[in-house]
TrEMBL record:
Compartment(s) where it occurs, according to its Swiss-Prot or TrEMBL record: Cell membrane
Organism lineage string: Bacteria, Bacillati, Actinomycetota, Actinomycetes, Pseudonocardiales
One Pfam family named in its UniProt record: ABC_tran
Membrane topology: Peripheral membrane protein
Protein known as: ABC transporter domain-containing protein
GO molecular function annotation: ATP binding; ATP hydrolysis activity
Keyword Nucleotide-binding: yes
Length: 315
């Protein structure tokens, strides 16, 4: 069942006589128990969607329903039905992570014992207990960001919206964070993650939408979109030790690109043996250093789709 439904939402900003079409006929749907990745370039319109979900902005046209409630008609319901981690770091001043997380839990209406239990659970899961009682103005950016997540997760609404939750967070705690994000879905909460970290989001999201210039370029199950776009392709990545003139695209390859010493060839999956043999030969000739054969990633697919969209506009 859909928790979030945007139907033909259009939003234009007007400032100093200039109009910016931030969301152009956007329709999106996020189901119960789903982690939904919202991707797009800077200025694609992601935060504008978030602010409309929270009732902080009103669309020019279109409807926004959360858990069956019309948040365009009743904007305050957006903040009640969704808990949010904003893009900006949470400024705590002299308050501690434990204090702000507990305040947020109580504001969202859960009882003291449950607030305490959830706070302990989240801090343990993210391994930030050692900073739980340190004043916010003495904390690192990563811990502040994780505290922002705990504030959104302590008493989740029907949907939790996380705007760039992994920024500033170290690689180990990023893993803990993605696991905590998945935990949120267990009782049916829908989670929307706005992020540029597509590579690491790949294993954590169920469905995605890619925004380009305010429009939805593609939307649906992440795996299916990847299979549709990448087909049965794989890629060979290698560190090039020679210039472009030394590399000629082999006939088994569909593409060969060299940029900043990174050599990437794509090829059909059933030609992996040829690709490996070729890579070994290049290494023996001293033209490449280490190499690896990998699946096409969601990030590769994102770059390809955005590239096609830009080409389409330029043509
Ligand atoms: N208050 C505003 N007034 C005028 N234009 C705005 C305002 N807020 C955003 N915009 C413009 O609307 C467009 C969409 O902005 P938005 O912040 O939604 O993008 P985004 O996808 O969240 O970007 P980022 O990834 O950089 O955070 C951009 O062109 C931006 O410059």
């Amino acid at each position: 069942m859909a928790v979030i439904e945007l139907d033909h939402v259009t939003k234009t900003y007007k400032s100093r006589g200039r109009k910016t079409l931030a969301n152009n006929d956007v329709s999106l749907s996020v189901n119960e128990g789903e982690v939904f990745g919202l991707f797009g370039h800077n200025g694609a319109g992601k935060t504008t969607i978030v602010n409309q979900l929270l009732g902080l902005l009103r669309p020019d046209s279109g409807s926004i329903m959360i858990a069956g409630k019309d948040v365009v008609k009743e904007p305050n319901l957006g903040r009640y039905l969704c808990s949010v981690q904003p893009q900006s770091r949470t400024p705590l001043g002299e308050l501690t992570p434990r204090a702000v997380t507990q305040i947020m839990g109580k504001l969202r209406g859960i009882d003291d014992a449950e607030v305490e239990r959830r706070t302990k659970e989240l801090f343990g899961k993210l391994d930030i207990e050692q900073w739980a009682d340190v004043q916010g103005n003495k904390l690192s950016g990563g811990v502040l960001r994780l505290t922002g997540f705990c504030m959104a997760a302590v008493a989740p609404g029907r949907a939790v919206i996380l705007d760039e939750p992994t920024n500033d967070v170290d690689p180990v705690r990023r893993r803990y964070l993605w696991s905590a994000i998945r935990d949120l879905t267990r009782d049916g909460t829908a989670v929307v993650v706005v992020t540029h970290a597509i590579r690491e989001a790949e294993s954590a999201v169920d469905t995605i939408a890619i925004l380009n210039e305010g429009k939805v370029l593609v939307q649906g199950n992440a795996r299916e979109i990847k299979d549709r776009t990448a087909g049965d392709q794989m890629k060979l990545e290698a560190v090039a030790k020679a210039g472009e003139e030394q590399f000629v695209k082999p006939e088994w390859a569909e593409s060969l690109k060299l940029a900043e010493a990174e050599l990437v060839l794509t090829f059909p999956r059933d030609l992996a043996t040829e690709a490996l043999r070729w890579a070994g030969e290049q290494r023996d000739r001293g033209l490449v250093a280490q190499y690896s054969l990998t699946e096409i990633t969601l990030e590769d697919m994102y770059i390809e789709l955005i590239g096609k969209a830009v080409d389409g506009v330029q043509r």
